[in-house]
From TrEMBL:
SUPFAM superfamilies: Thioredoxin-like
Site feature: Deprotonates C-terminal active site Cys: 32
Keywords, comma-separated and alphabetical: Disulfide bond, Electron transport, Redox-active center, Transport
Official protein name in the record: Thioredoxin
Phylogenetic classification of the source organism: Archaea, Methanobacteriati, Methanobacteriota, Stenosarchaea group, Halobacteria
Enzyme active site: 38, 41
Cysteines engaged in disulfide bonds, as pairs: 38-41
Thioredoxin domain sequence ranges: 1-111
NCBIfam families, per the entry: thioredoxin (TIGR01068)
Cellular component, GO annotation: cytoplasm
Site entry (Contributes to redox potential value), positions: 39-40
Gene Ontology terms for molecular function: protein-disulfide reductase activity
Amino acid sequence: MSTPESAGKPVPVESEDHLNELVADNDIVLVDFYADWCGPCKMMEPTLEEVAAETDAVVAKVDIDELQEFAKSQGIRSVPTLKFFADGEEAKSVIGVQDKADLVDVIEQLS
C-alpha cells in the first residue's frame, strides 16, 4: 500500500520517527542513506527515482549529514548504503553504487 506522498518518487526522511512510520505503513521500503557531497550517491539518484516510479517499493532518502545521530545508530559507515525493509523488518543491506536491475530483483524477492 503506498501513500500519496510516496507515489512514484523518493521520499525525503525528516526524522527517525518519520522513517519508522514509512516502514510500518508500507510492505517494502528501500532506504537510501546518502550525503549531498557524495559522488556515488549522486550517481544513484536517477536509478532510485526509476525504482520509486516503477516498483511498489517506497524509496526513502536519509541525509546522513542532517540526521547524523540516526545514521550512526543505524550503523552507517559509508554512503551510499541502501537498506531494504519488508513487512517492518530489515531484510537486506548493500553498500555502494548498485545496478537498477539488482535493486528491482531484491524488491521482487521481498514482495
